[in-house]
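Ticket #4471: structure output looks truncated?

Reporter: J.K.
Steps to reproduce: submitted the chain below (311 residues) through the standard prediction queue, then opened the result file.
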Amino acid sequence: MPETAIIIPNLNGMEHLETCLRSLEHQTERDFQTFLVDNGSTDGSVEFVRTVFPAVTVIPFDTNRGFATAVNEGIGRSTSRYVGLINSDIELDPGWLRAMILGMENRPDVGAVACKMLNFFARDVIDAAGDVLTRSASASARGHGVKDYGQYDAEEFVFGPCAGAALYRRGMFEEIGLFDDDFFAFYEDVDMDFRMQMCGWKTAYVPRAICYHKRGATMERMYPLAVKLHVRNHIFYLVKNLPGEIFFRRLPLILGSRLRNWFLYSRSGYLGEVLRGVLEAVLAIPVMWARRKKIQRKRRVSIGYIESFMR
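Returned output as attached by the reporter:
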């Protein structure tokens, strides 16, 4: 079987797919298999890929089942040693996959690899150089929006990768589980990052692996839903993962950050989505709390180690 499975979740992304899939065809690393998991697209995406890219294995859903379920389906259908996740609005540099694999090889404690993501339309601007945690336990794309002058050209460990272009070790999934289906979309990768770190898995940032991202291109059509999911899933992620000692010590920062975030959404006309997100999160706390107990029992790192990412 191929060493790597590349999984592309798709929802009406046909305008981006040719660029994405052509960049995969041009990879210097050839030992991989590509899966497109389609979330009920109505724009002809499935027919287009089956016709123009017959080597791609298409897994069609009848309805939109979300990012997490789509990538989990692709992971379950594959048997490769490594799993790459790529959004349909990504273009890869030809050496991307090889550099990502080299970042994983001979490093048994590395469960994921993050790459240097540049803005698709302004290619000297950073989109993300791995994800970090803020002091209020929110996730942030490192370097987002700043000019790239080499300040993120050192290989190092980060909190996690953006799942829009990342490589994961299958053995890590086998230990800690797949993405949480209940997140549907947004923050499922942050939840995964936190679970990885809690269990002692590290994320290597490899700046030689470069891709170009049309950030927000696949979210524009579903922005009201995205607001609700951002609000809800951030609460999900905190309830599941954040150790109590950190939560109570940083409670003022966490509350301040969330209230500011919700206020900005509300001022932009999304008060209803904010309220629905909070309500859904509160109703799901018993389910998330049960998952929290399992996660906290598996923690193998110190509180100080986790807080070292919150900067």
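Triage note (M.O.): checked the attachment and the full token line is present. The chain has two domains: 4-220, 221-307.
Status: closed, working as intended.
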